[in-house]
Amino acid sequence: MAQQHGIIVLFDVENALRTRSLDGNTYWFDNMKFLGSTGVGTEHLETIVPGTYFLDGSQATEQVLNWLPAALGSIPPTVPRNYLAEQGRAEERRTLDELAALNTEGGVNEADVKRLQEQVGTYAEDPGGRGFTAAKVLDVTGKATSSSDAYNYPAPVITDITGQAVAEKIIYPAQYGSPDMVYDGWYWAATVDTSRPGVYPYTLHVQLHELVKRNGELVWESVDLTCESSLKIITDPKRNGFTGAGLGVLPLPPVPAPAG
Predict the structure, then answer these.
(1) Mean pLDDT of the chain
(2) How far apart are CA 72 and CA 118, in angstroms?
(3) Residue 69 C-beta-side C-alpha neighbours within 13 Å
(4) Mind listing the pLDDT tens digit for each residue in 189-220?
(5) Side-chain half-sphere of 244: how many Cα atoms within 13 Å?
(6) Secondary structure of residue 17 in the 3-state scheme
(7) Beta strands 4-11 and 63-71, pairing class
(8) What is the reported pLDDT for 144?
(9) Is residue 66 very low, low, confident or very high in pLDDT (cuts 50, 70, 90)?
């Protein structure tokens, strides 16, 4: 069975949109640091891909890479994508109930009205119905809400993988559908030809989304950027991460002799 490699890319979306560049705005992580991956946690990750041969000298199976993008400060991937929208709707229902109660009691004053205005407002439109979480950015009067500077950016979307590693057929990337909705049901993966040791750079094409005003409406507009990383295929055989030995059954602890 092919070994799975996870590569997580964290994006500083706000700064990347401001500078229109991913340089200095990405943080890469993988699960192969114990085998020698370098630059983990920086924008200069070099992912180690072992397993050209098994310990007995036979050709190893291909390895599999999985890329998982995320935005710094965004909703954790384990939380449903519609979390903020649902919380916003619940908050506005409570606000309308409070307003009805104030009208009934006849105790409406300016402070109450101002507070309620900030709780009921306008949400940015979903770009193309992709399931991104909406964020309230304007109150009912059209003024910016107190939380508008901290709205949740839509998750970064990988749109393609190119570069030397692809051109030389070292990796064969593709987008796959999955029942796991953590990443909207889509993710990028690639098989790796481990029979050709060396360092191979590749380019990740990423789409971010910026909140802009178009024709009087707030919408998420796409911004396409790129960033780079690389693979280092080594000749070391695949080995057990727990024991350092070849693949096989994990060693069992000694069984104590029965008492008596």
Answers:
(1) 75
(2) 26
(3) 27
(4) 999 988 888 999 999 999 999 888 788 777 88
(5) 1
(6) helix
(7) parallel
(8) 45
(9) very high
What are the beta bridge partners of residue 205?
160, 226
Of the candidates 252, 202, 256, 234, the residue with the CA atom closest to the CA atom of residue 28: 202
Could you tell me where the beta strands, DSSP code E, fall in 12-166?
26-30, 46-49, 63-71, 121-123, 136-139, 157-162
Instruction: Count other C-beta atoms under 10 Å from residue 109's C-beta.
Output: 8
Residue 21 corresponds to which tokens in the numbers above?
């560049």
d(CA 152, CA 46): 30
Tell me the one-letter amino acid at 165: A
User: Who has greater pLDDT, 240 or 10?
Assistant: 10
Select, from the ranges 77-81, 136-140, 159-163, the one with the highest average predicted confidence (pLDDT): 159-163
Which single residue is written with the structure tokens 């307003």? 99
**Which pTM was predicted?**
0.67
- Is residue 37 within 8 Å of 48, Cβ to Cβ? yes
- Residue 18 CA to residue 27 CA, distance in Å, equals 17
pLDDT over 90, % of the chain: 31
Residue (of 64, 46, 79) closest to 155 by Cα position? 79
Enumerate the domain spans of the chain. 4-74+153-233, 83-150
Round to whole Å and give the CA distance between 181 and 66.
16
User: What is the reported pLDDT for 240?
Assistant: 62
Beta-carbon neighbour count of residue 33 at 10 Å?
A: 15
Which of the following CATH numbers is that of domain 4-74+153-233: 3.30.70.240, 2.130.10.10, 3.20.20.70, 2.60.40.420? 2.60.40.420
